[in-house]
Amino acid sequence: MSDTAHPHEHAAHTDQIPRLNRIAGQVEGVKKMIVEERYCPDIITQLRAIRAAIKTIEANILERHLHSCVAGTIASGDKDEAATMIEEIKDLFKRFELD
After folding, report:
1. pLDDT of residue 20
2. CB 63, CB 92: distance < 8 Å
3. Which example biological process does GO assign this protein (predicted)?
4. What one-character-per-residue DSSP string does 36-55 give?
5. Which of 34, 61, 69, 86 is the most buried if burial means most Cβ atoms within 10 Å?
6. In the predicted model, is pLDDT for residue 71 greater than 80?
7. What is the rounded distance in angstroms from the CA atom of residue 80 to the CA atom of residue 64?
8. What is the pTM of this model?
């Protein structure tokens, strides 16, 4: 994770909070299912739903990053910063491939 300051305005992601709250509720539900010794495939189904929801949030944030942060940096003409951002995105995709 990069803590580097970037010379552009970042996209807001607060609209993802309700989705994250829903995921937190799903996680609590899975914990309850485990305590109740529910059927394993049912637990796995819920875990897959959580994973899908997280991937949706990841995609939403990445899309905004591309449209806001990356596009803004390219428009500013800062080639070094743009190259850094492209490398960050390449690294993200490499990590996504492992999921």
Report:
1. 98
2. no
3. negative regulation of DNA-templated transcription
4. TT--HHHHHHHHHHHHHHHH
5. 69
6. yes
7. 21
8. 0.78
